[in-house]
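Glycosyltransferase
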Amino acid sequence: MPDSLIPSSDEARAPIKVAIISHSDKLGQPSVVTHRLMRALRRIGVDARMVVFTRLTYDENVSAVSSRFLRVVRFQYERAKIFLSNRMHIDTLFDVSIANVGCRVASHPWVRDADIVVLSWINQGLLSLREVRRIGRLRKPMVWIMHDMWNFTGICHHSQGCKRYMQECGSCPFLRSNSGRDLSHKVWKRKRGLYEAMPINFVAVSSWLEDEAKKSGLLSEARIHMIPNAFPAEAFYVVPKSLRKALPVDYSRKLVLVGAWKLDAPAQRLQLAIDALNHLFENYPAVANSAMVLFFGEVADAAVFDRLYFPYCHIGTVNDDTLLREIYASSSVVLSTALYETSPGTLIEGQAAGCFAVTTRVGGMADNVRHLINGYVSEESTPEGVAEGIKWALDNVPDRKMLHDSVESAFDAPVVAAKYKELFERLLYR
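Tokens:
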């Protein structure tokens, strides 16, 4: 037989079967990016399917586990235990998860038939830590995607400055606890036992998250890979198609965008952004008078903008993707002063539309910003430092195509999917 007709080892292999376990296929950002990953994997020849708690799409490669009634019961049971442990304070009820109850996913045919099992965001009743153990006993390579800090803390999704996860959790501020043996410590110990028993490969979606995981008491010795979330850069464009005159925006000025789902949530540090804009207005009036700030997102009290001198417009929540992309394409700068963000969506969206990104070196905010090339990273979280970044971005003309292309090359779905496929092949064939 001619050599050209002999199949290579890659050609002889059947497609890798991957079962991705995720809270949902559509509900919440981790679910959206996980579904996007599943579709991208299928496009490059990986037989990927999703097993979810809440199914919202009609995708035939997504399967829901359990009934709606049982899902509600499991969800409420977990929240009730947290509520009793945090002294009945509702304000932190959804900042933590304890994975004490979940569905029997290990017996799902897609999971049992898979070559690789991928865990994504699995909280709020989908998987218990006990069920993760059962999945591990199937003796398949397991990959766990970390969308936040929960994998290496006791119970919180973002520690919000607490550093107890670097040793052992306990005396948890989310529980208002002074006990070193509280619920957070008990869950921390269960995670430690799980990780010691199961050979899990963890994926961090940002360099910052990877670094924090390596500092933790739980994952300092773990196998951690950094692969970013896939991002649809192709959906964003750099030249506005039709300026939206319905918005009270002066398009003759350079637009600075500031946006978040909950704009005035403490972690967004809106006051720092306002102080920086005021500093710019007072010290560089010519720059300020040539620009305008456009805020989008929900605020609890619109009076938060009363002390802002800089010309601005707040348009509330934007649910129209077409409008949002038009606004990005019409802007010059996207600003975020958030305290932590595992994968900063607004900065990436802004860059995909050709905007300079301005941020601070905290959390994962600076992961995708090359200082003075595609944006500005303030080393200090001060009004003066952030104001200098905004001034630099307004004084310079962005190469909008270069900014778009940089996002596409780093976050394009096929690029991200190929990195996962390479990881899967190493785990299966090494």
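The chain is about 35% helix and 15% strand.
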